[in-house]
């Protein structure tokens, strides 16, 4: 019963995630989910901050400065896929799309050779 109160306090009062609770309680995350479901405790869903799409010039400038979508994603605080989607929507070509066919072939050959042992 003591664990039940502790778990409920962690999730409601301290707003811990099931993963954080599992670490604190030294049990698996799956066990935390099982117990919460058993006791009828709802896990509050975290609301993600919606980042507005930057204008084309801003995103283009960041991409030129950082050279990669992962670099831009770190600066913007969003995921790489989000940056890629924004660039596609704003019709900003990525470095990979700007390569000639021969450059793409050289890049593929390079990666294939790196895989050979």
Tell me what the structure shows.
The chain contains 7 helices and no strands. It has helices spanning 2-12, 18-25, 29-39, 56-66, 69-76, 80-89, 101-115. The protein is elongated, with a radius of gyration of 23 Å. The protein folds into 2 domains: 2-39; 56-115. The protein is mainly alpha-helical.
Which secondary structure elements does this structure contain, and how are they paired or packed?
Blueprint: H1 2-12, H2 18-25, H3 29-39, H4 56-66, H5 69-76, H6 80-89, H7 101-115
Q: In brief, what are we looking at here?
A:
With 117 residues, this protein is mostly helical. It has seven helices and no strands.
Number of helices: 7
- Spans where pLDDT lies below 50 across 5 or more residues: none
The chain-level mean pLDDT equals 82
What is the C-alpha radius of gyration, as a whole number of Å? 23 Å
Count of discrete domains = 2
Shape estimate? elongated
How would you characterize the largest beta sheet? none
Distance between the termini: 57 Å
């Amino acid at each position: 019963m003591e664990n039940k109160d502790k778990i409920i306090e962690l999730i409601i009062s301290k707003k811990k995630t099931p993963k954080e609770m599992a670490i604190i309680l030294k049990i698996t995350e799956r066990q935390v989910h099982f117990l919460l479901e058993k006791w009828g405790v709802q896990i509050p869903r975290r609301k993600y901050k919606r980042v507005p799409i930057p204008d084309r010039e801003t995103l283009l400038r960041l991409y030129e400065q950082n050279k990669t979508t992962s670099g831009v994603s770190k600066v913007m605080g969003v995921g790489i896929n989000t940056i890629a989607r924004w660039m596609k929507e704003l019709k900003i070509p990525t470095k990979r799309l700007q390569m000639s066919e021969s450059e793409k072939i050289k890049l593929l050959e390079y990666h294939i050779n790196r895989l050979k042992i």
